[in-house]
Amino acid sequence: MKVLFWASAFIVFYTYVGYGLVLFVLVRLRRLIEGKRPTPIIPEGGHPSLALVVAAYNEADIMAAKIENTLALRYPEEKLSLLFVTDGSTDGTPEVIRDFPNIELMHAPERKGKINAIHRAMRQVEADVVVFTDANTYLNEDALLLLARHYQDPTVGAVSGEKRVRIEENADATAGEGMYWKYESTLKKWDSELHSVVGAAGELFSVRRSLYQPVPDDTILDDFMISMQIAQRGYRIVYEPEAYATELSSENIGEELKRKVRIAAGGIQSILRLPEAANPVKDPLLSFQYISHRVLRWTVTPFLMILALVVNGIIFATSGETFYLLLLFAQLLFYAMALAGWVLENKKIKSKIFFVPYYFCMMNYAVLMGIRRYLTGQQKAAWDKSRRKAADHTQEKTHL
Q1: How far apart are CA 19 and CA 352, in angstroms?
Q2: Strand order across the beta sheet in which 80-85 lies
Q3: Going by C-beta distance under 8 Å and a sequence separation of 6 or more, which residues neighbour residue 350?
Q4: For residues 218 and 382, what is the distance between their CA atoms, to the nearest angstrom?
Q5: What percent of the chain has pLDDT over 70?
Q6: What is the DSSP string of 187-224?
Q7: What is the pLDDT of residues 120-164, one digit of tens each?
């Protein structure tokens, strides 16, 4: 029982803390041996042709602001094309886009999901590099230039930007979302410097068009699958934190939970469809990063958290050892703080001390629910966006 407890506790610790520590050490060692990776510079007139693709569904209320942000992006005009896909939209989104002749519009009346819309767009795109971004995110003006420069390196097949979550001063437990993404961004920086990021976020990522491979129409995490298929072929996914997409936090913790459950369902689907990424024979370093950063989170770790608590209780009940009583107390205290965070969130009372454990437990609960939804066939691939906090878009662009 003690072996089972310590094995479970170690994997949980490694998943959320230990991998970051190991990654930190490996990156430092790599710098000592090979030096820091150089930042590519695009020669004068050498910018690759680039297409920005935005898949939007019923985003009429923010589309004008999104277009204004898009038109403000810096990139050689003769090398840039803009394509918006609005399949299934019924709220006037296509009509808003038609007022801007320099943006190409693709629209089909039937809604078949985001990935189907992207596949339609990719059959038409001819640019060397394709950048994907969401309709409800706003990019910094140099984002395209910063992404494109990495394609000077022929070993790079995809480049991911950074997702930034804008937290309002009166934010509730969704403030945990911002803290989570700051930690994730740090891990991605180190992943990228060591070898490769393991998957890109759909808010802002790019690929070489020649390496793009369509994924099945029922794919839940299309951005993750598209980028990882490129990594499986031996190309690096680079992380560019200075190219960023900013969005508001989820409207409430319920909306954030809905989003996390969908991601978890897509995570288990991706793991089942990407067996080569976990094969250490083909690419040992990619496999190590993929299993450590993704597979453990999306599979066994949430179950091991429960197992560690139960086994800890059994060990103390049968042995009476004070040490295991202290460990049990520490676990119960953590979950009590998470419970307090849930209660305070429902009462609209702010306290980050309790909201952070609450958000952490919510994420792991979402994994359990996501696995259940995927295995029971309840998770649809159709794009079901979560509601975000309302904001004044003028202020939002100033923030960028």
Answers
A1: 24
A2: 104-106, 80-85, 50-55, 129-134, 204-208, 156-166, 236-248, 138-139
A3: 170, 171, 172, 175, 344
A4: 8
A5: 90
A6: HHHHHHHHS--SS--TTEEEEEGGG-----TT-S-HHH
A7: 999 999 999 999 999 999 999 999 999 999 999 999 999 999 988
Output the CA angle 15-19-23, nearest 5 degrees. Answer: 160
Query: Residues 196, 143, 294, CA angle at the centre, nearest 5°?
Result: 30
Model pLDDT for residues 81-132, shown as the tens digit of each residue = 999 999 999 999 999 999 999 999 999 988 888 888 999 999 999 999 999 9
Which pair of tokens denotes residue 361? 């437990």
Environment class of residue 299 by beta-carbon count within 10 Å: exposed (0-12), middle (13-18) or buried (19+)?
Answer: middle
Going 76 to 77 to 79 to 85, the CA torsion angle's sign is positive
CB neighbours of 86 closer than 8 A, spacing ≥ 6? Answer: 56, 57, 93, 94, 97, 105, 106, 107
Over residues 265-313, the pLDDT tens digits come to 999 999 999 999 999 998 999 999 999 999 999 999 999 999 999 999 9
CATH architecture, domain defined by 1-400: Alpha-Beta Complex (3.90)
Separation between Cα atoms, residue 358 and residue 206, nearest integer Å: 33
pLDDT value at residue 347:
82
Contacting residues for 281 by C-beta, under 8 A, at least 6 apart:
none
83-119 in b/e form (b: 16+ CB < 10 A) is bbbbbbbeeebbebbeebeebbbbbeeebbbbbbbbb
- Write the single-letter amino acid at 84: F
What the block records as the tokens of 143 is 């984002």
Total residue length of the chain? 400
Confirm whether pTM is higher than 0.85.
Answer: yes
How far is C-alpha 123 from the geometric centre of its chain's CA atoms? 25
Where do we find the tokens 């003006």?
141
The terminus-to-terminus CA distance of the chain in angstroms comes to 52
Q: Where are the domains of the chain?
A: 1-400
CA distance 163 to 232: 23
pLDDT of res. 392 = 46
CB 203 within 8 A of CB 147: no
pLDDT greater than 90 at residue 399: no
